[in-house]
Amino acid sequence: MADLQDELHTTGGLDAVPDLFEDEPRAPVSDPDGTQLERARAILTAHPVADGYSGLPWALRHLHWYDLELGESSVDTDVPRLRAGHVGALFWSLHLPEGIVRDRAVGATLEQLDLVKSVVGAHPDGLRLVCTAGQATDARHCGRIAVLLGPAQAAALDDSLGVLRALHSLGLRVLTLSGVSWAGETGLTRFGEEVVREMNRLGVLADLSGASTDTVARVLAVSRAPVLFTRSAARALRPHPANLPDDLLAGLGAAKGLCMVPLTPEQTGPSVRAVADHLDHVREVAGPECVGLSGTFDAGTAHPQDLADASRYPHLIAELLHRGWTESHIALLTWGNVQRVLRGADFTARAAQQRRRPSTANIADLDG
Fold first, then answer.
1. To which CATH superfamily is domain 27-367 assigned?
2. Could you identify which of 64, 82, 90, 262 might form a hypothetical disulfide with 231, taking C-beta atoms 3.0 to 4.6 angstroms apart as the criterion?
C-alpha cells in the first residue's frame, strides 16, 4: 500500500502546485533524453487531445472565486494547463452526487448547465462552448479550447422525452444510460428503446460506462449512432466493474463505437505505463478507430504522478511513441476518433429527422 501511495498524486488541495510550473519538466523514465517528449508535443500541436470526461463543473460549485485564465491551483484544470497539455476539446460532465434523483436531478443538471455557460462566458479568450465536430475544429483554429456539454445522468430526464429535448436545446450532447428503471440491470425497456431513438434523432450520444451488460447489448442493437464509453478501460488488465471485457470491446469495435480510457489508478493502474497498457489492449481488441482518452480530472479521483493534471498529456503520448505507436494512430486516439463519433451523431440525427417526428411516448404507456 505504501508503494502505491508513493506513486499516486491526488490533486485539488489549495497548496498543490502543478508540475507545469517546474522550470524543466522531467522526461518519462523510458525517454531519458526527452526526445520522445518533444516529438509528443509536436504531434499534439497538430492533433490535440479531445478529453472525454472532466468533473470541473461540480468542482467549481464549491469555490467562492476562481480564475481559469490565469491559473487555479485548487482544481486540476485551468486554461494554462490545458494549453500545456495540448487539450483542444473536453467534455464537461454534468454528473451529480449520489442521492440526487428525479425532479431534484433535473434542477441540479440545469444548474450545472447554467454554471458551465457562465464559466465559458467568463473566459472567452480560452474557452468556447460547442455542439458539433465542426464547431470544435473552428474553436481550435481560433485558439480556443472547445467545451462540449455532457455526459449527464439519465436521471436528469425524469423519465420525460420532453426534458431530453429541452436539455439538448441547451447544448447537452452526451447522456449516461444507467441508474434508471428503463436502463437497468435487465437492459432497456420499451421506453428505454424510445429514449435511444429520440437521442439518435437529436444527436445526443449514448454513454454506456457503468451500464449493465444487457443495457449495453440492447443499445448497440437499437442505436444508429456510435456509442461512447466515457470512462472504461480493459477488464482483462484490471477487473474494475466499469472496465470492458474483451468480447464487449470487440463488439464495440464492430459497431465503431469509442472506448475512452480513464487516467485513474482504480481503473488503469498507478503509472503512465499502466495507462498505456490499457490503451494498447483496447487498440488491439477494438481497433485504433475505437480508443480515446478520458482525463477524469476534477472528478474526485487520484491520478498517477506523471498524469497529475491536464498539462501532462505529452508524457502519456511520449510513452506510446516509445512503444511504437504511429503518428496516425496517435492522431486518432487524441482527436480523430472523437471527431468521427461527433460527426456520426450529427449525420444520424439529420437522417432521422427526415423520417421521424419528435416522440410523444411516455413511460406509463410503454412500460406500464
1. Metal-dependent hydrolases (3.20.20.140)
2. 262
